[in-house]
Amino acid sequence: MLIVLRTLCILVSLLMIGCGAAPGGDTLDGANGDLGLPLSGVAQEIKTSWGLFKDGSYSASKAAFENALAADASAVEKSEIRAGLGWCHVKLSGSQAGIDQFRQALQLNPKQNDAIVGLAGALISKGSKEDIQEAVTLLEGLDTGNANFVYNDVNKVGVSNAEAHAMLAYAYFVQGNRTKSNEQIRIASDLDSQFSGTPVDQIAEVLKFIP
Questions:
Q1: How far, in Å, CA of 153 to CA of 172, rounded?
Q2: Above 50 in pLDDT, residue 65?
Q3: 86-129 pLDDT, tens per residue?
Q4: Phi, psi of 36 (to 5 degrees)
Q5: The pLDDT value given to residue 202
């Protein structure tokens, strides 16, 4: 049983890390269509930083987010910057590397969804009882009281809505709440039904065969 649960933790970690940088390397030049244009405030700097991230240029994205953080940003903007930095750390160093940045993002804006999903995934990969409980609270908070919450991965951090539901299904399972776990994996599988061999499929298969 412990080996199976550890396998699921690894699946969640791999889900967050993704496939690595996109072809073309980790450079600033030509990484997205906004580069080379004059920046117009923090909002543009954040957009540029996410553009680099989406292209797989994680080191350059991290540097750009850090530059944006030094600007005169609002709390909501700083929260998004911290979330971006958290995801850069995840892609560069592993699923738990962004925890501090995600926590800072949520202190500034508790509704920063990229930070919520990032921190929840990191806590699930740690796997303690307390970590799992916090992850459940975070994921439920995406839309309190709505089992069919929607997570839109607008910044391409690499976690789909289906995968967020699968993460919650696993967390509920570890807590011993089979009813909610089954509900969440069903939602995840329905959302992911057009694909095969995905992390959602793998989590669903493992949960299905655990007595």
A1: 22
A2: yes
A3: 999 999 999 899 999 999 999 999 999 999 999 999 999 888 89
A4: 90, -10
A5: 81
**Could you tell me the sign of the dihedral formed by the alpha carbons of 175, 179, 184, 189, in that order?**
positive
Report the pLDDT value the prediction gives residue 40, as an integer from 0 to 100.
56
* pLDDT for 190 beyond 80: yes
Counting other chains too, the contacts that 177-185 makes at CB distance below 8 Å and 24 or more residues apart are: 180/147, 181/207, 183/147, 184/147
Distance CA 160, CA 8 (A): 17
